[in-house]
Amino acid sequence: MSETPRAVYIDGRLHPPEEATISVLDHGLLYGDGVFEGIRIYARRPFRLDAHLARLEASAHAIALLVPLDRAGLATAVRDTVRANRQADGYIRMVLTRGDGSLGLDPLSCHHPRLIIIVAEVSVYPPDHYVDGIRVITAATRQVPMASVDARIKSLNYLKNVLARLEAHEAGAAEALMLNHEGFVAECTADNVFVLSGGRLLTPPASEGALDGITRGVVRELAERAGLAFEERRLARYDLFVADECFLTGTGAEIVPVIALDGRTIGAGTPGPVTQRLAAELRELASREGEPLF
Ligand code: PMP
Fold first, then answer.
1. Is the distance from the beta carbon of residue 216 to the nearest atom of ligand 1 less than 6 Å?
2. Residues spanned by CATH 3.20.10.10 within the chain?
3. Which residues are 131's β-sheet partners?
4. Atom 13, ligand 1: which residue's CA is nearest?
5. Is 191 in the pocket of ligand 1 (CB under 6 A)?
6. pLDDT of 4 over the 90 cut
7. What does the pLDDT look like over 176-188, one tens digit per residue?
8. What is the domain class of 8-120 according to CATH?
9. pTM score of the predicted model
10. Residue-wise over 183-222: b if at least 16 C-beta within 10 A, else e?
11. CB of 52 closer than 6 A to ligand 1?
12. Which of 62, 117, 239, 265 is the most exposed place for a label (fewest CB within 10 A)?
């Protein structure tokens, strides 16, 4: 595995990392005008690549941004970049920006969307987070209303998440829970939130301000396979306080147990058995699904 990428894809070409540069007039940089995806590589296989590409296309379409390649072209670009980096286990970051334009924000000044693909090592939570579980705080920073930016758009605007994560660090917590403008649970700064309550797995619907996470979808599959009820439902902090188990899901985090919120212990205060089983099943599934790329 390489510390830094060996080859970075920009607009159809692979570049050595020191030459992988873009213009300061890119509206992704100037205005956060763009969308992105984070994809894991397990045992030389990009996990759920097609679902990530579909979400990238939907995010782009929702902000009237043209994707420069079709689905097959995107998949080829990702696979070629993974192979060029010989990254067996790692992380793929796809970034699609509005491209270069004028200094003003007008998106119509941008004529060529820019597609970037970076392959790198994955930065994961330390192993003890999975063994012991993590403590989470509720951030004062809220999710933006759906009427402003729909949470299903995985946009480059992560400032609210960054601010919420700073609050977590300030409080000595690993993650921050973000509420929507009504005060109900939306998601964490980079993960979806689940509780196990009365034998049912509950997670907020996207309409509460949650990204429609790919890992969230895999958990749904695993739950259904195990005969565990899965329900999208509005959740309050109260539901986390009184849950039997709680965990977060994300491409980087996988499934991480949550043992406390705002100083209140959740369940037994240790990672729950259902959480641990789902986490093991996710890793097992990811390690065998799909064909190795090299
Ligand atoms: N919510 C946010 C805000 C995220 O950035 C992410 C991705 N890290 C998730 C949820 C989880 O989504 P996925 O399972 O598709 O990675």
1. yes
2. 127-288
3. none
4. 213
5. yes
6. no
7. 999 999 999 999 9
8. alpha beta
9. 0.97
10. ebbbbbbbbbbbbbbeeebbbbebebbbbebbbbebbbeb
11. no
12. 265
Work out which ligand 1 atom sits closest to the CA atom of 187.
1
The ranges of the chain annotated as CATH 3.30.470.10 are 8-120
Is 154 a catalytic site residue? yes
Distance CA 286, CA 153 (A): 25
Residue type, 65: L
Residue 127 tokens read as: 């192993």
**Right CATH number for 127-288 from 3.90.1200.10, 3.40.50.300, 3.20.10.10, 3.90.850.10?**
3.20.10.10
Q: What is the pLDDT of residues 58-109, one digit of tens each?
A: 999 999 999 999 999 999 999 999 999 999 999 999 999 999 999 999 999 9
Q: Is the CB of 187 under 6 A from ligand 1?
A: yes
Give me the DSSP letters along 120-184.
Answer: E------HHHHHH-EEEEE-SSPPPPTTTS-TTS-BS--HHHHHHHHHHHHTT-SEEEEE-TTSS
Tens digits of residue pLDDT in 210-222: 999 999 999 999 9
